[in-house]
Amino acid sequence: MDVGGISSYTNYLQSQNTSASKLKESVDGKDYSQASDEELLDVCKQFESYFLEQIFKEMQKTVDCFKDEDGVNPNNNLVTYFRDEVIQDLAETSTEKQGLGLAQMMYEQMKQNYSL
């Protein structure tokens, strides 16, 4: 593998956990008992988006597309990178447009628990 391929692969691996690390950063070290309604709802939507993303990724694993006769994808890194980006974007859009209602239920429960 050439140096360019290694750096592309390294960039791909770093971007793999972007949504998880973004969610972790927004939650770690914060006291949501003093959070505004908007901040609380935003975190709940981020969690729902992450949850949907994980569901979509597991669903994708059940589909055997883009493989040659040997069962190997010749463009695995590139296809996986863009597929993951599309899945992440789809999860965020789904949460913003309609969602599962999970974010709203979590928001209401957290408001009640924190007496906001």
What topology emerges from the helices and strands here?
Elements: H1 3-16, H2 18-27, H3 37-61, H4 76-97, H5 102-114
Helix pairs in contact: 2-3, 3-4, 3-5
Radius of gyration over all CA atoms, rounded: 18 Å
Helical segment count? 5
User: What is the average per-residue confidence, as pLDDT, rounded to a whole number?
Assistant: 76
Largest sheet entry: none
Order of helices and strands: HHHHH
Q: Multimeric state of these chains? A: single chain
By DSSP, the count of extended strands is 0
Describe the structure in brief.
The chain has 116 residues and is an all-alpha fold.
Question: Main traits of this protein?
Answer:
116 residues; mainly alpha; 5 helices; 0% strand
Structure description:
The protein is about 70% helix and about 0% strand. The radius of gyration is 18 Å and the shape is elongated. It contains 5 helices and no strands. It has helices spanning about 5-15, 20-25, 35-60, 75-95, 100-115. The protein has about 120 residues and is mainly alpha-helical. Helix 2 (about 20-25) packs antiparallel against helix 3 (about 35-60) and helix 3 (about 35-60) packs across helix 4.
